[in-house]
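Dear Dr. K.,

Following up on our conversation at the group meeting, I've run the structure prediction for Mtc1 family protein from Streptomyces triticirhizae. I'm pasting the input sequence below exactly as I used it, so you can double-check it against your construct before we proceed with anything downstream. Let me know if the numbering doesn't match what you have in your notebook.
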Amino acid sequence: MAWEWRFEKADGSATEPPQDPGDFGTQGDAESWIGEIWPELLDGGIDQVTLLEDGSKVYGPMSLHSAVED
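The predicted structure tokens came back this morning:
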């Protein structure tokens, strides 16, 4: 199984991250990575992310802004 993030603007259009993280071996690895890197993604113009497993949506879009607003 390959886990990956889709990076999006607020309107849902796809965008590229500052650096490509590639695929993750587990959901936990993907979620740990996003938990550490989200401020850099937000600074890079990414508004939200969606988690995919083998190309199928697991959840999202998840706003990166809500973490700042809390």
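Two things stood out to me. Residues 3-63 form one domain. Residues 8 and 14 are 4 Å apart (CA to CA).

Best regards,
J.T.
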